[in-house]
Amino acid sequence: MKSIDYSRPDASDEYAPNSGGPLSIAEMDAEDAEIEKQLRRIQATSNQAFIPAMWAHMGKINNEFGFRRNPFGGRTYEFHGGMDIDGERGDQVIAPASGTVTEAGWKGGYGNMVEVDHGNGLKTRYGHLSRIEVQIGQALSRGQLMAFVGSTGRSTGPHLHYELRLNDRPINPRRFLPTEVKELKKAVG
User: Fold this and answer.
1) Is 185 helix (H, G, I), strand (E, B) or coil?
2) What are 116-127's pLDDT values in tens digits?
3) Is residue 40 part of a domain?
4) Are 43 and 51 in contact (CB under 8 A)?
């Protein structure tokens, strides 16, 4: 009986470059470390008004960032690049940081969507909106009304899809958000 050395992959298990093979733990750790380094640099050198460190909408978190069961049935799992915050149709969505609107309108599964560029490769997206109150190119201030909660696009009911992107890759929004919603209450009264 042949013994198997699990410390390194068998030659038959190796993947050709760009073949969709699995990322090694070391590669994922290195990527995470690079993201953390870049986020620390952004937080240290940026005007704090441009860092999305407050909630865009108050509500219960229905879906977190990461893999989840497909909400449209079946036994499949999918990657969820943001978090879903429960709300009623027409609830306000405010800018959690200053920035410039780069997209405002229909975007497939997001439905009505707003994207805001906060600089340094940091962007936020707000999906499933019932109504959009901003335009592409518009400068936003922290706490400014942007849109209203809805259920457009690939949605199972009214909620806000909130997404944080660094260099066009989704990252967990909780890295910036406070654990309580006191800041948002101050901003919207």
Assistant:
1) helix
2) 999 888 899 999
3) no
4) yes
